[in-house]
Task: structure prediction
Amino acid sequence: MVNRYSYQILDEFLIRVFTKIGCPFEDAKIISEVLLVSELRGISSHGLARVKTYLGLWEAGRITLNNEVKVIHETPSTATIDSGNGYGMIGAKKAMKLAIEKAKTAGTGWVSVNNSNHFGIAGYYAMMALEENMIGITTTNASPLVAPTWSTSKFLGTNPIAMAIPAGKNPAFVADFATTPIAQGKLALIERKGENCKLGYVQDKIGNPTTDPTILKQGGAIVPLGSDYEHGSHKGYCLGAIVDILSSVLGGANFGPFTPPQVAFLPLLEKSTGKGIGHFFGAMRIDAFRPAEDFKNSMDEWIDTFRNAVPAEGHEKVLIPGDPEREFTEIYMKEGIPILPDVEIELLEVAKKYNVKTFLE
Amino acid sequence: MVNRYSYQILDEFLIRVFTKIGCPFEDAKIISEVLLVSELRGISSHGLARVKTYLGLWEAGRITLNNEVKVIHETPSTATIDSGNGYGMIGAKKAMKLAIEKAKTAGTGWVSVNNSNHFGIAGYYAMMALEENMIGITTTNASPLVAPTWSTSKFLGTNPIAMAIPAGKNPAFVADFATTPIAQGKLALIERKGENCKLGYVQDKIGNPTTDPTILKQGGAIVPLGSDYEHGSHKGYCLGAIVDILSSVLGGANFGPFTPPQVAFLPLLEKSTGKGIGHFFGAMRIDAFRPAEDFKNSMDEWIDTFRNAVPAEGHEKVLIPGDPEREFTEIYMKEGIPILPDVEIELLEVAKKYNVKTFLE
Result:
């Protein structure tokens, strides 16, 4: 039995929680919005299931409330932002806004962020560009769980890439994906079910393929997209590395293995190579390359063409990136956002602990 | 028995060939340089083996010599270039130079190119940014051989991404990879040997996995990086699609299935959705984000860290993207560039046909 609640009810609840710990209303609103947009897009691993973890980081003194978000370096089309160790969403949203502002005059805008924390789904920020007739790009580094090809060292996160591309009559193209065969959340789900995972997701502590989803606790690692060298995992390693470098080295955040843990139960690392975790944001005006109408017509034709690709046997249709998430959003806005029972219990415990009204009342 | 020839001897030969058909000396020099840098990097599929094909395109009237390369749209950080249907390298090198020039004043520069043809290796252009203390990015679309996940329609090329990132004392990070598990050239090699390929490279005409490397001739397709949906091929499809859109829709080139064939024996397509094939180039000044020395120190630390990752059992070391290609270059500059016997025969036939001095004399 899964209960459903409206966006508005959950939004009001999350704002109550985050203002209660001391977030300014505007910041709480941003945190809530990013978490709930993730739920609306069917990515529940980055939604309400994170609330307790987010609060745990603050309880452990690892998050600064009322964080100052400062531009510390800039050129006409670029900037670097110090996010003041706040919840990731707050600096991230300001960074993407700045990228968009820069694009208005320079054609494109590119902002790197350091001293940040987990920022939710990358796609949220990339999609901010759409209403401005811009292409949006977002990457972030993340806690290291992934081993480079031919290595056993967990040096990279599942490092996502998000790209949102506007169209005309069609809904936008929105890709948002980890640079690994499987996201950590899905692996945890397989573990909870007591099942084995497929070969090609993880490796053991000496680098051999295994189907044991608990292997990360025994020195194992997630492998890069491609799964093994013969199927191009070195390309997935390149992608994860590029995301890491753009998100950290470029703007002065911690890179790869030094990315601070985003859960309070893991100790902070002794060595740091920068500040906090890092993100990278880009906005490109489509009319910086050709008239916007021409771009949109061509993008519509692209989408129509790919939507009409011949399905493989056993499949009904070919998807455009963003299709499944948009379908979730439509259903959940109408019928409410479903919350898994254990997440619901967690949220009710949070309400009690912080003495705020629940979403049931 | 494989013969080796010096870069200079081969360069002089290629310049003789391309000036003989009517290329201006400067253009012939660029074509030769990109082909030979590809050989030096060990990517012989994009080097001398392409000469006959390139000439075939000109013989078929599909390439314009003395092509005009025109900027048709621009903003402070962007431009779109019409490459005048020339050999791809000519417009591509000018486009990357323009991206670098824009970055000098705007912080970053981004140039899309339409009306182009095959441009050799993407990495060549991305690496042009390195000597300017910039990060270089290059993508191109290509003849459609790859089916989106859950489809049998060959709608995408092997669409490469190249990214070159400068370091300090360490050699630069240079990634240059197709967004598929295997490049077409390697598949052709397996076919020539009469062997089967691994599962996870190609699918048959109804979309089932197969080990038959000849399957592309029977309605089959290469699959995206990730190999199948359960191992993330939808992420590889996203990557291939992003490369296609940035390289074509953004600047007005033909997209996906309408990308014109880059071999003369295939007929031109009836429908077009833009001009020629397209590329996309980016240059980002590292000091547009933080002081260049800080970036370089951090990048050196990144490279040292990853180079010292623990190797998996059976492996001696973990590679940094660009390592293997740099090793090839060092050897080939010293010992000469090895040419496969059938490629050597092809080049000698070219010399005879166009009545130019060979590389043997």
Remarks:
- Chain A touches chain B through 91 residues (CB under 8 Å).
